[in-house]
Specification:
Blueprint (H helix, E strand, L loop, with lengths): L8 E3 L5 E3 H31 L2
Antiparallel strand pairs: 1-2
Length: about 50
């Protein structure tokens, strides 16, 4: 489990506390999904141009 210390917490604009590890893991997952979509598009483009 994650510790709820002040070092691990961020304060948002409305004054609520958010766990930094949760924010960083969410950003990582979003980046992985973006890269997956980009690689899939590049794979389809390479397949189409390679078969011509």
């Amino acid at each position: 489990m994650t510790e709820k210390t002040k070092k691990n917490m961020l304060i948002t604009d409305d004054g609520t506390y958010v766990n930094k590890k949760e924010v960083h893991s969410l950003i990582f997952v979003i980046l992985c999904r973006i890269f997956t979509i980009i690689l899939a598009i590049l794979g389809v483009v390479a397949f189409v141009t390679g078969s011509m």
